[in-house]
Specification:
It contains six helices and 15 strands. The two termini are about 30 Å apart. By secondary structure, it is an alpha+beta fold. Helix 1 crosses helix 2. The relative contact order is 0.15. It binds uracil (URA). Uracil (URA) binds next to helix 5.
């Protein structure tokens, strides 16, 4: 890693907002290689230096992996000059430069979204051959029937391609759960449309073995544990 401002390093590691970490630095709570550094703008190599906060060593994480419960009405993008994005919703303690959503949900789709600055992980997650199942719950205008279940299992033909086989499970009322391996544009909505049904609301509940944390309110995010990260690929 290159040299970076001390306050930026600490904020990127979840120690606090830029203002909070600046206060810690001014109070002499932060040492670099055993010396208290009192200027927040001081540049440090986070990989080479031993940074301690309140005497406790900081193990600098190269990448950040977040789970968000995406709310409706925000774009799955890093930044947009006109619209609010999922990255705009991150609290300062989870924000760092370079974060982007690994995979997109439509503006009106809610639920599990991974946000990271690790391009390689995003690539592995999204590569068609990684075949990660995504579980969605759809609220429909009409209930699904056994013919729909069969059609999804065979692979729904769309105008431009035939979908890979998908698992469709009817639930109470006009709700259904569907597991798909692909992530083409509006795919789930288009699959239901091909069966004459309109998706009124769509939520992603799971990616691979990783489930949306039910304690996260819409718009909230938290860091993933290493075990949770591995679950995506299980
Ligand atoms: N399929 C869709 O149609 N929309 C999404 O947001 C995700 C999957």
């Amino acid at each position: 890693m290159a040299l970076e401002r001390l306050d930026k390093i600490l904020a990127s590691q979840g120690i606090g907002s830029r203002r909070e970490v600046a206060a810690l630095i001014r109070r002499g709570k932060v040492t670099v290689d055993g010396q208290a550094l009192l200027r927040q703008e001081q540049k440090v190599d986070p990989e080479a230096a031993e940074i301690c906060v309140d005497g406790k060593p900081l193990f600098v994480k190269k990448y950040l992996y977040l789970m968000m419960n995406k709310p409706s009405g925000v774009l799955s993008a890093a930044r947009d000059s006109r619209a609010r994005t999922v990255v705009d919703l991150l609290p300062p303690e989870l924000f760092r430069k370079g974060l982007f959503p690994a995979g997109r949900l439509d503006k009106d789709t809610t639920g599990l979204l991974i946000i990271t600055d690790d391009g390689e992980l995003a690539h592995r997650m999204l590569a068609p051959k990684s075949h990660i199942y995504k579980l969605y719950e759809a609220q429909l205008d009409n209930p699904v029937d056994e013919d729909d279940v069969e059609a999804f299992a065979k692979g729904v033909p769309l105008k431009d391609f035939v979908c890979l086989p998908a698992r469709l499970e009817p639930c109470a009322g006009n709700t259904a759960r569907v597991q798909v391996r692909e992530g083409k544009f509006h795919q789930v909505k288009r699959m239901f449309a091909a069966r004459g049904k309109t998706v009124l609301a769509l939520t992603r509940l799971q990616m691979g073995g990783l489930k949306l944390d039910p304690t996260l309110k819409p718009g909230e995010s938290r860091e993933l544990t290493e075990e949770e990260l591995a679950l995506i690929f299980s």
